[in-house]
Specification:
195 residues; alpha/beta; seven-stranded mixed beta sheet; three-stranded antiparallel beta sheet; 12 strands; 34% helix; 24% strand
């Protein structure tokens, strides 16, 4: 009887993090790979799930491949999926192929996918190698001091933010779900239909 209880407890300890995500308690030390994010201001409205009560997404910026500074707010008119992740997070690693598939499905339909990497500066080369190995083609930026993660309250990862065409947070999803490709696609398609 004790062995059964012990096996159940151990199984739960292994399974729960997959669906809940990884703790990101060290966000203040985080940096990553390709580009570096800088936090901006948070213009917040009332929170809520209806379109009219959505909160404005905190603005942040990064330097693109051409050296131009781009702000999240520059992407108004597009649907944006933001994915906070790290290479050391098992559930994050499981989401990568799904996020890549979503990016490929919607990249020509007015959707931008941004991965915000939370690995520390010492892991920079590891992150770049990880991106190559996993075939990640969507934009990945780093969050040098955890400022962006802090603005978004990303205390556990993976954490996804769906941003509507008006720059407002439409939905937040935490953790890995094996059906995420379908549920995320449904959410993005609904956001694309909004005015």
């Amino acid at each position: 009887m004790r062995k059964k209880i012990l096996v159940i407890i151990l199984a739960l300890l292994l399974i729960v993090p997959i669906f809940v995500g990884c703790s990101n308690s060290s966000t203040n030390n985080n940096t990553g790979n390709n580009t570096s994010a800088t936090s901006g201001t948070n213009n917040s409205n009332n929170t809520g799930s209806t379109e009219s009560k959505r909160q404005i997404a905190p603005d942040f910026s990064w330097q693109n491949a051409d050296g131009k500074i781009v702000h999240l707010s520059d992407l108004k008119g597009k649907v944006v999926l933001i994915d906070f992740w790290a290479t050391w997070c098992g559930p994050c690693r499981m989401t990568i192929p799904h996020v890549e598939a979503i990016y490929n499905k919607f990249k020509d339909k007015g959707v931008v996918v941004i991965g915000v990497n939370l690995d520390n500066q010492a892991s920079r080369q590891k992150v770049e190698q990880f991106i190559k190995e996993k075939g990640i083609t969507y934009l990945v930026i780093s969050d040098p001091n955890g400022a962006v993660a802090s603005q978004y309250g990303a205390t556990s990862i993976p954490r996804f933010f769906f941003i509507d065409k008006h720059g407002r947070i439409a939905k937040v999803v935490v953790g890995y779900n094996p059906n995420m490709e379908k549920t995320f696609s449904d959410e993005i398609e609904a956001l694309l239909k909004e005015n």
